[in-house]
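Example record for the data management plan.
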Amino acid sequence: MTGDHYFTAEPATAAQPREVEFSVAGRDYTLASAAGVFSADRLDAGTAVLLRKAELPAADATGPLLDVGCGFGPITCVLATCASSAAVWAVDVNERARDLTAANAARLGVADRVRVVAPDDVPEDVRFAQIWSNPPIRIGKAELHELLLRWLPRLAPDGMAWLVVARHLGGDSLHHWLVEQGWQVERHASQKGYRVLRVTR
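Corresponding structural encoding:
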């Protein structure tokens, strides 16, 4: 055991490249993945529910859009292909995840609109029309709250965030906490034990 987690900045685990195949909104995706990133072998069940149940951006959406905790890039790549004019920012603390997301954006021909960066490298003045995240629950409640308090205020005044959280990992308590912080929160959908939350100001 190396002690690596998907939220490790520089995974020491051997990459062991592989590919992940999935379909969203009638489009098939084949993305590069590797050990040491979140859900390296398949599209995570929560991410699948999020992409199936949330309202994907329209083709004419201009963004910018943000994927928080991008992993190998499934959400980023779906957003960039759905919203064919929008800039999509992808952030992750994991360097390998960022490299994979950038490579997958290039594979899909959307690299010119995808900006893959470490969290501290998002300019302070950028405000997002939409924020998407399957947030890293396992970093702990305090760290999760800190992450959301960092990014949700970056929403544009009329922006919205889409979050997916497993009910058994605190999806309902997170909903209540967000309301306590002053956000408008709607449980948009529930499927396979996951809550899809729509968050607005």
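Summary line stored alongside the record: The first strand starts at residue 18 and ends at 24.
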